[in-house]
Amino acid sequence: MEIKKIRDLTLIDIDKEYTMVVACDSCGGIGMKEGDTFKVPTVYVARFAVRVAIMEVICAGAEIVTITNAVCNEMNNTGIEVIKGIKEELKMAEIDSVVLTGSTEENFKTISTGIGITAIGMVSKDEVKVNSAAGEAALISIGIPKVGAEIDFVKDNSIVDYSTIYRLLKHKDVYEIVPVGSKGIAYEAKELAKNNGHKLNFKDNILVDVNKSAGPSTCIIAAVNQEKINDLKKDFKKVNVIGLMV
Predict the structure, then answer these.
(1) How large is the average pLDDT for residues 39-44?
(2) Dihedral, CA atoms, 150, 151, 155, 156, nearest 10 degrees?
(3) Which parts of the sequence belong to the PurM-like N-terminal domain (predicted)?
(4) For residue 35, which of 85, 111, 133, 235 is within the disulfide window of CB 3.0 to 4.6 Å?
(5) Which of 43-81 are b and which e, b meaning 16 or more Cβ less than 10 Å from the residue's Cβ?
């Protein structure tokens, strides 16, 4: 059994045909408890925490088979709200909620919200989209980096959605997709290029803040066929060219 660590993913070769993809995320001090630093309804905290792990797994081309939630609080009512939020996000991602399992803290009283999420997916080895950028490629971003109170927790059309991810995964001119988190577009773009054996030349006058945190994966970057940039701009909204891998 071969195990590889790439970016925030763990890839485990199960057999000659399939690879398991594992990603996780955690969230603490955000919620409605007395000790929380940032007051947000728990259902939204759970939605965006599980979103990060889901995005990591599906962008690698894998199908989610299990989601675990480690709620560091009581079931009633923090755990109930967490489960509700996770199920809402799974529905948005078109994932059956039967994959969900988890645990809560019933022995001790807690004064701040804590959630740990792990997502596990399976993918055929010939369909893994990790370190799969073919030769020289352009890097694009879709979605706007946002974090914390900048996000409309009910609906935010500037955040990249799951339907866009699924369309990108099927597009022949899209080689690899990476969700962007707190380290920002520039960091993830340089890492993507390096992991594919390339250097990145950033474009001048980029129309998005490449150093800003994207919080719960509010945007993605993708390595694409540089000759098809104009076509991709027609097919997808809010596409920004970040640079070229050389």
Answers:
(1) 94
(2) 70
(3) 10-123
(4) 111
(5) bbbbbbbbbbbbbbbbbbbbebeebbbbbbbbeeebbeb
d(CA 18, CA 4): 14
Domains detected in the chain = 3-127 (3.30.1330.10), 137-245 (no CATH)
**58 near 23, Cβ under 8 Å?**
no
> In this predicted model, what pLDDT tens digit does every residue of 163-205 receive, in sequence order?
999 999 999 999 999 999 999 999 999 999 999 999 999 999 8
% residues pLDDT > 70 (the chain) = 99
Is pTM, for the whole model, over 0.85?
A: yes
